[in-house]
Structure formats: C-alpha cells, structure tokens
Amino acid sequence: MFDMRPSVTKINFYRQGRGYEEDVTVREIKLENDEENFELGFEMTLAGLDFLKTPKELIGDDDSQYNPFYLYFILYLQRGQRDNKVISFNSRYVTEDELKMGNLDISFTVTKFLNRKEDDGLDYNMDFITSMLHFSVFYSYEENVEDISQYINNPYLTLFSTKIPYIVEGILNE
Fold this sequence. Notes:
Elements lengths: L6 E9 L21 E11 L8 H4 L9 E11 L3 E12 L1 H6 L2 E11 L16 E10 L8 H4 L5 E6 L11
C-alpha cells in the first residue's frame, strides 16, 4: 500500500481583522464585552506534494501520476460521549498543478465567535474537558463526503486535529 498523504509543515490559528501583535498566534479565545467578536483564522502549509506520484509501472505512461484530492476543514462541537454537532465545514480541491508545485499555503476564516448574550441557536455548554470544540483537517479523493465521522475518526485520513481553546459557561457551569 502507498502512503499518499502530504506532509503538514506549518499549522497556525490567528485572530483576523485587528492587526495586533498578540493576534498572530491564538492561545485562547476570549470575548471581553458584549460588542466584541473573534474571527478565528487558520493557516497551514502542505509540503511534499510533488512527491505524491503513483509509480508509472502501475498506471502506464499515458496517464497522470498525480492524484488531486479534496481537503476538508471541519469545526464541530463534541458533546461529551453523546454526539457531535458541525459548526462549520469547508473544502478545497488540490489540483494537479498545485501538486506539481510541491508546497501549498492555505489560509481562511474558520468561524466568527460572537458574544453569547444573544441566542445563536447552539444551546450548549463547553468546559474543554467533557464538551469542546474540535477542528480537524482530513483529505479524500471524493468530492462529497457523506459520513464525516468515518473521516474525522480515521487517523490515516486526518492530517490535523485539535481542540479549540474556548469555554462557554451554560446551565451546567452556573
């Protein structure tokens, strides 16, 4: 079996829009007042893409050796051992031309955190231990993934996964 995964050489979460020095790398997400919001940005670099070629003896001389794929970025709430709730889901197609370049820098807005004084439809409590936000990056050769759990729980397909340092006190923490 071939290992067709790219190398992840850079990962960073940052705060978008303010331009302060402390926003370059996020260590915690805090909303100081009722008016504040927090736009969470994510950047990563994939490397070794130009090495991800299927050997010619398996495909013939006329076919491309490169296998373009989809990257999926998912932010979800894990509620204890019960279930997961998707907050945001984005995808990006990595083309054959991008594979040939070797390295690929990706950055985008993951989500915007708003002050929780108003109801946002997400009736949850997060304590970072039993219920928490997770962010995962996985890849697939399929354009539309149906069962996300088969990807986020598969260590081979997951390129990156982490908890997001954000706590929301709800009725369980009052």
